[in-house]
Backbone:
């Protein structure tokens, strides 16, 4: 049954793992946010010979499991540090989803905005940077937030390539002290405590942007 | 450049969308500094003329000239031939034309001042101080000197449209296109916008092309009115003449509907 002492011993270990989890989330989402935006813009504004193969590659990444991608990267790029590799795979995987999100945001910018840019002779680059993307990103802040939460919850997968994130640490503690119940319960509680308020925040943001 | 070149010349310009012909081999000239108003039923091709000039649409056939040079086209490789203008060439040449839209199309995420400053800084290469000074003057001119820091969405439709006018003027266009600029406004806000435009017309030598249903405004500012129907000019003449004693039955019928 529940062992308070074991739980007390597990907590610092789990929290240390949480540091790595948080780091992987922030870095992974940063990669996804930037790469996803680049993908969306290239698909809309880039030359066809770049846009078409990129769309194919993104579709491929989207339709294969993250777990398989992690293993594949682990085998193919053995030299890279596990955390760095995990962050990159996570980032690329989510970039393919975020590019779709950005794309709906870009499409939601009214045609009149583009026409005003033409009437003012703004250069293309400036149109994207100053007019279209600020509005497009604003349009999709809530779904971006939701994807951040879901990326956060997928970080335990990184344990399969030996990243010492929270669930990996909980598992290790569980096996050495035979206290799986305590360590995994704590890890679950930390996930809940972190993602629950974040989703509430996203929902409030959504409500605020709605009017 | 010889001054006798018209500001705008349409040479047998045709615009088709699929099977639908909006403009049919249209010939049209607008003199430099001339104020021309296009009237006619909706779908008659008036707005298309403005959109072609702003390069929001491309001609199907024919050539548009601006200031005596081909505008929709450029010289081809073979001497004496014309090919459709490249995007780069259009980008260079559309600067001399400005446009105010029915729906204002202000940038909602920028302040009023930023809206007006954006193009002079990033297209004309003006310094920020210089551009802001001009912008403030223009916003004073349109009666919004106290709204420089406001977001466009906080303003009434009439105020937004006046910002849009200031924004267009900040690029110092030689030709200004006004596309039904009061059609989206509540009736009580129409006057403030038209008053500003009357001031602009009086105070500058800008070439004006307007599409409007405001016949009073058309009479006040236009040198000439063109009556359109089905992509062709039905009748053209000095404002007072055409509005008082239209020669054409089609014009009479149309004026009957807007009065």
Residues:
């Amino acid at each position: 049954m529940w062992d308070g002492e074991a739980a007390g011993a597990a907590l610092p270990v789990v929290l240390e793992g949480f540091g790595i989890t948080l780091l992987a989330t922030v870095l992974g989402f940063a990669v996804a946010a930037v790469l996803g935006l680049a993908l969306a813009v290239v698909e809309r504004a880039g030359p066809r010979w770049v846009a078409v193969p990129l769309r194919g590659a993104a579709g491929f990444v989207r339709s294969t499991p993250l777990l398989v991608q992690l293993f594949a990267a682990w085998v193919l790029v053995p030299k890279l540090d596990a955390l760095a590799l995990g962050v990159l795979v996570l980032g690329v995987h989510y970039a393919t989803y975020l590019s779709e999100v950005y794309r709906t945001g870009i499409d939601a910018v009214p045609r009149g905005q583009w026409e005003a840019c033409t009437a003012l002779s703004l250069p293309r680059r400036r149109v994207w940077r100053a007019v279209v993307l600020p509005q497009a990103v604003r349009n999709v802040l809530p779904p971006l937030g939701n994807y951040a939460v879901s990326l956060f919850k997928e970080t335990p997968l990184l344990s399969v390539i030996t990243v010492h994130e929270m669930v990996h640490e909980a598992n290790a503690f569980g096996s050495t002290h035979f206290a799986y119940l305590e360590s995994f319960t704590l890890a679950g509680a930390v996930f809940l405590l972190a993602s629950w308020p974040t989703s509430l925040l996203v929902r409030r943001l959504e409500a605020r942007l709605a009017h | 450049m010889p001054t006798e070149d018209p500001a705008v010349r349409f040479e047998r310009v045709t615009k088709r969308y699929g099977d639908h012909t909006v403009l049919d081999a249209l010939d049209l000239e607008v003199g430099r500094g001339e104020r021309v108003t296009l009237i006619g039923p909706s779908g008659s091709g008036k707005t298309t003329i403005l959109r072609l000039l702003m390069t929001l649409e491309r001609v199907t056939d024919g050539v548009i000239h601006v200031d005596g040079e081909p505008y929709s086209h450029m010289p081809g490789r073979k001497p004496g031939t014309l090919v459709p203008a490249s995007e780069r060439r259009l980008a260079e040449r559309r600067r001399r034309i400005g446009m105010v839209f029915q729906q204002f199309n202000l940038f909602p995420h920028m302040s009023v001042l930023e809206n007006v400053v954006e193009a002079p800084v990033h297209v004309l290469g003006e310094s920020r101080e210089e551009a802001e000074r001009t912008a403030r003057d223009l916003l004073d001119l349109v009666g919004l000197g106290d709204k420089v820091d406001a977001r466009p969405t906080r303003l009434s439709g009439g105020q937004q449209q006046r910002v849009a006018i200031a924004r267009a003027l900040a690029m110092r266009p030689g030709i200004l296109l006004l596309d039904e600029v009061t059609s989206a406004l509540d009736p009580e806000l129409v006057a403030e916008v038209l008053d500003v435009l009357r001031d602009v017309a009086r105070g500058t030598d800008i070439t004006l092309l307007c599409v409007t249903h405001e016949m009073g405004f058309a009479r006040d500012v236009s040198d000439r009115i063109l009556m359109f129907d089905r992509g062709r000019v039905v009748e053209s003449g000095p404002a007072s003449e055409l509005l008082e004693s239209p020669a054409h039955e089609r014009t009479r019928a149309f004026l009957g509907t807007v009065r």
Chain A has a mean pLDDT of 92. Chain A has nine helices and no strands. Residues 4-210 of chain A form a domain with the MetI-like fold fold (CATH 1.10.3720.10). Residues 61 and 93 of chain A are 6 Å apart (CA to CA).
